[in-house]
TrEMBL record:
<dbReference type="InterPro" id="IPR002937">
    <property type="entry name" value="Amino_oxidase"/>
</dbReference>
<dbReference type="InterPro" id="IPR036188">
    <property type="entry name" value="FAD/NAD-bd_sf"/>
</dbReference>
<dbReference type="InterPro" id="IPR050703">
    <property type="entry name" value="Flavin_MAO"/>
</dbReference>
<dbReference type="Pfam" id="PF01593">
    <property type="entry name" value="Amino_oxidase"/>
</dbReference>
<comment type="similarity">
    <text>Belongs to the flavin monoamine oxidase family.</text>
</comment>
<protein>
    <recommendedName>
        <fullName>Amine oxidase domain-containing protein</fullName>
    </recommendedName>
</protein>
<dbReference type="Pfam" id="PF13450">
    <property type="entry name" value="NAD_binding_8"/>
</dbReference>
<feature type="domain" description="Amine oxidase">
    <location>
        <begin position="636"/>
        <end position="705"/>
    </location>
</feature>
<dbReference type="GO" id="GO:0016491">
    <property type="term" value="F:oxidoreductase activity"/>
</dbReference>
Length: 721
């Protein structure tokens, strides 16, 4: 490297986006050109993915975290991180990324039968070729035509599964009749079927679906009105055939709901001309997904069914946290569903084998430290200060002149805070800071300083970073909900930032974890370990996390561990300003948990309730309990030993993808301000939905905006239609 001074980068926020940006900017290829400092609230990295070790080294998460098999960018970086870390498997049980992430093939939905009652709808998702993040193995660049053709292929497969065995033979499964392959032949076959209405047999319907698959591959050769009429005729034939069957058979009804949804998606793709619109799926982002499906012929049963409901539940897609206001932009909803179901590699879900902080953020921290990244913990951003317009020289672009922080605590001796703890050879994050490292740590602990709370404004000092002295470029990688609080001047001066704050909404979430003395089979669950969504409020999503018991340090390990999560109904902004608000919400979530266990969990775990009704509170294990401790809490009071959280801090709130809102997101590639870029799942990053993959994509884009690397074509999904 030349004698030129390194460019100082201030990364504000240590979540997935901030870590991805720091990882990219400190690659060896840059030869030390960028000198990175990460400024972090409190004592740990992770953002919404933070976790900590509590009593008995219990893993305590922000919520339920699963990685999906299409998270190409996230897996690519974490795989590279573990390769660089080079942990010794003889001394560390999670030494490789395959130790940290394990394929999870069993998934389920909670389905409400029209005849009354909840029942699980479970399935084993087949493994797909390759592994997420495989180097040198490019992910297929799907087009909308490809997705619609795959949708019809899925419809054909599902229809084949319900062919009545009593008929003696199954319809010919070939895609199209022999000799029908040229556009002219396909067109002639479609016209003939339409003219004579030959959809009476299932074999004819399957042939028609095959013809449409071929037609979608070369749409420019076919009249759209013909395809629409042909599609509608096929859909009508299928509806007629299924109408009676689904009235008495829940399994067929469920399959029909998927078929009906796929038919509506294909119809909408044709009707809205998505295959030729340069905006791709973005063209329908002003519609809600359910609204758009309804416009394109999906039945009310399908729209309100378990499958569609789960698409909303998995992304907390309820405006203001209100289950009566399900809303997600149709384009992003379809993009997410298509990526999830048609582009996953290895497994549909991948389950972490410890806390997310342990398997993701501790490795990133260790690798970045080795690369020379500095971490300034206990720094709370107060404002991003712009240079006054009148002070700009002719031709000089607007820029950030200062970053203003409150310093929450200082480290004894003035060195760097050492955040990790050792749990039987694995570096982990604790649930509370190590007060021994902090100046007057005993007093801070005694007074109960809440370093991660938006409402605890206590500080030991302030710090102002000045451009040209302390930093050259800033990457704002805080949670989207924090923007109005930490970018007051930007929001006041810039109408685009103001519009983003007003239109790109967030929602609080709630979660709880149980450690139990009975295993899932003893609780009445008869399926394999699973992740279930689409259940009843207030907790619509559950995952069996019993595999984590061996990762914790119980004197008597629990037989089962369960995680639950959901959106938390919001309250007006003025109510959120009261100092008592976080405590009130914590108690509110506790009441939700107790009510859920007393009233609803019996539908999933029939033997979790006693003979006299109500939850068996004696199932709950207390990490602090011991035979020598004497009498232990009984009844509902035992719930206090479990873990629950109300994620109401602005930076903890989940970013929604509301209809009509995505165009107001800011891009990491936006260069309005000469030395400022943004990163987070709240930005315009090519996959505009709250998830790990979006955050990592955004962080990589932020790094690209500064250094030109990685190349945009290397950011998988950025150019997705």
């Amino acid at each position: 490297m030349s004698n030129e001074r390194p460019i100082d980068i201030a990364v504000i926020g240590g979540g997935c986006a901030g870590m991805a940006a720091a990882f990219e900017l400190t690659r060896p290829e840059h030869q030390g050109r960028y000198r990175v400092t990460v400024y972090q609230l409190g004592w740990r990295l992770g953002g919404k993915g933070a976790s900590g070790r509590g009593p008995a080294d219990r893993i305590q998460e922000h919520g339920l975290h699963l990685w999906m098999g299409f998270y190409e960018n996230a897996f690519r970086l974490i795989r590279e991180c573990y390769a660089e870390l080079q942990r010794d498997p003889a001394t560390c049980r999670i030494a490789d990324w395959r130790d940290a992430f394990v394929p999870d093939h069993f998934n389920g939905l909670a389905d409400w039968s029209p005849r009354g009652g909840w029942s699980p709808w479970t399935a084993r998702m087949p493994p797909f070729e390759g592994l997420p993040g495989d180097p040198g193995n490019e992910v297929p660049r799907w087009s909308i035509a490809d997705y619609l053709a795959r949708s019809l292929e899925l419809v054909r497969a599902l229809v084949m599964t319900v062919w009545e065995p009593a008929s003696g033979t199954a319809p010919d499964a070939q895609r199209v009749p022999a000799g029908v392959g040229t556009p002219e032949a396909v067109l002639e076959s479609m016209s003939s079927l339409l003219k004579y209405g030959q959809f009476a047999t299932l074999a004819a319907v399957l042939e028609a679906l095959g013809l449409m698959e071929v037609a979608l591959g070369t749409l420019r050769r076919y009249p759209e009105n013909l395809l629409l009429r042909f599609h509608d005729a096929v859909a009508a034939a299928l509806r007629e055939r299924f109408a009676k069957l689904i009235e008495t058979d829940d399994q067929l009804r469920r399959l029909w709901e998927i078929i009906d949804m796929m038919l509506a998606v294909v119809r909408g793709g044709l009707r809205f001309r998505l295959l030729t619109d340069p905006r791709g799926f973005d063209a329908i982002d002003d519609y809600d997904c359910r609204e758009w499906l309804r416009l394109n012929g999906a039945s009310e049963g399908t729209i309100n069914g378990a499958f569609v409901r789960a698409l909303y539940d998995l992304t907390f897609a309820y405006e203001d946290g209100d289950v009566k206001k399900p809303r997600v932009a149709a384009g992003q909803g379809l993009r997410g569903a298509f990526r999830a179901f048609f582009t996953y590699r290895g497994a549909f879900f991948w389950k972490m084998q410890s806390g997310m902080g342990d398997v993701v953020f501790a490795p990133f921290y260790e690798v970045l430290k080795r690369r020379g990244v500095r971490f300034a913990f206990f720094h709370r951003l107060e404002d991003v200060r712009l240079v006054a317009p009148e002070r700009l020289a002719p031709g000089e672009r607007p820029h950030v002149e200062a970053l203003e922080f409150d310093v929450q605590a200082e480290v004894v001796g003035g060195g760097e805070y050492q955040p990790l703890v050792d749990v039987r050879g694995l570096p982990c994050w604790p649930v509370a800071p190590d007060y021994r490292q902090l100046v007057e740590g005993e007093r801070l602990e005694r007074e109960g300083w809440q370093f991660e709370s938006h409402w605890d404004r206590r500080k030991v000092g302030t710090r102002t970073l000045r451009v040209g002295e302390d930093f050259d470029v800033a990457i704002l990688a805080v949670g989207g909900g924090a923007i109005p609080h930490v970018c007051k001047q930007l929001v006041e001066r810039d109408s685009r930032w103001r519009a983003m704050v007003e239109r790109v909404k967030t929602v609080p979430t709630q979660a709880f974890q149980l450690w139990m003395s009975a295993n899932m089979s003893e609780l009445g669950w008869t399926e394999p370990p699973i992740n279930v969504s689409g259940f009843v409020e207030p907790f619509d999503t559950w995952a069996d996390m019993s595999h984590l018991a061996s990762e914790e340090s119980w004197s008597q390990p629990p037989a089962a561990i369960a995680y639950f999560c959901n959106a938390l109904p919001d309250v007006p902004e003025e109510e959120r300003q009261r100092p008592a608000f976080p405590h009130e919400q914590h108690e509110r979530v506790r009441r939700n948990c107790v009510q859920f266990l007393e009233r609803d969990i019996v539908h999933l775990w029939p033997r979790a309730h006693g003979d006299s009704g109500g939850f068996r509170w004696d199932l709950l294990q207390d990490a602090r309990e011991s035979p020598e401790a004497g009498a232990s809490p009984q009844g509902e009071a035992r719930f206090s030993s479990q873990y629950w959280t109300a994620n109401v801090n602005p930076t903890d709130r989940y970013t929604l993808s509301l209809p009509g809102s995505l165009k107001f997101r800011l891009s990491p590639l936006d260069n309005t301000y000469d030395n400022l870029t943004v990163a987070g799942d709240w930005t315009d990053c090519g996959f505009n939905q709250g998830c790990v993959e979006a955050a990592v994509m955004s962080g990589r884009l932020a790094a690209h905006s500064i250094s030109g690397a990685p190349r945009l074509e290397e950011i998988v999904g950025f150019d997705h239609p």
